[in-house]
Amino acid sequence: MQPLGPSSSINRNALCSVFLILLAGCNTRPPVSAGPGESSVPITNRNPTSVQSATRPVSPDPNETIGAQKKGADTVTVEDILKRVTKSYQQLDALHVKAQVKIKGEGADYVGIERYELKFKTPNNIWCDWTMISEDGRKVHRQIACDGKSLWRWSGETNRYSCEMAPQSVAGINELPQDVPEIVLLTGGESFQGADSAMLRLDKPGTRGGVQVYTIKTNRTEVVEHAVDHPVTEITLFVGMKDSLLRGMLAKTSFVDPATKKKLGFSIDAGYLVNNPSVSFDDSAFVFIPPPGSKPR
Fold first, then answer.
1. In sequence order, which residues have a C-beta less than 8 Å from that of residue 195 and are 6 or more positions away?
2. Higher pLDDT residue, 139 or 34?
């Protein structure tokens, strides 16, 4: 599907847009470096649209729960929750995550399902396999594996892989997908410490994947030049009450197509099939196995 312009800001970072927009001053990411013969375009559609636009937060609805919730005798604030998230990931010794992101509706740059699986163990063991959708609708499949001694990178675009000496920590690994929230938090690239919690609000607690969660919301309006109706996106972040792990993210965008005057809307829903911080990995979990037909670069 060709982008309609006003919707592109939220959709061009499908996997992590909901997460990154909650970080102060951080709603873009550098592109993934490309190897010989590979696309230099990042793994998700980050190209700016031809329409000059800016995004601004919308003031919370005064009738909604803002900034704090009661939990027993304690008052829990958005800032408290986000600090706990950052601290929780910083203290993890291991993590296994399988997630998928469903993009559907009318007006999205593209629709479909993106997936990633992450295995992590301190200080420098990681196995990450991800399939994203590029800006032209192609599925892009890549894998990075580090067994503590060697670092392997594979690209499905060329079916070629490379090998080099492993860095001392996962933070030293280039080309990890910065659209994956856990990667961002585990490598210290960004954190929730600087998030503008004044623009976030706590909704009613609920469940996500059978886990009790805090529900954090914010609204964003993208101001588009010459647009009749500015796109509005409601962003929701789900955080586990007990473990302070991310339990899902959701963005719903609505706008009027300036060409047809038709009201359109689409959603980006990130959910977890596996989210286990208590996993015990053996060395085989981080071994790189070359895919069929692949060759060294």
1. 22, 23, 24, 79, 82
2. 139
* Boundaries of every domain in the chain: 8-296
CA-closest candidate to residue 271, choices 240, 238, 242, 235: 238
pLDDT digit string (tens) for 34-78? 444 454 333 333 222 222 222 333 333 433 444 556 554 468 888
Residue-wise pLDDT tens digits, 4-24: 333 444 444 444 545 555 553
User: Residue 14: is it exposed, middle or buried by C-beta count within 10 angstroms (0-12/13-18/19+)?
Assistant: buried
Q: Is 79 helix (H, G, I), strand (E, B) or coil?
A: helix
Q: Which CATH architecture has domain 8-296?
A: Clam (2.50)
Structure tokens at 188: 């210290």
For 175-211, give the DSSP string. Answer: T--TTSHHHHHHTTS--GGG--GGG-EE---EEETTE
- For residue 197, count other CB atoms closer than 10 A to its CB: 21
pTM (two decimals): 0.77
Assigned token pair, 284? 């085989």
CA distance 22 to 20: 5
Q: How far apart (Å, rounded) are the C-alpha atoms in residues 193 and 207?
A: 25
pLDDT for the residue 159: 97
Confidence of residue 219 (pLDDT cuts 50, 70, 90): confident
Residue 268 · residue 102 · CB < 8 Å: yes
Place of tokens 């890549």: 142
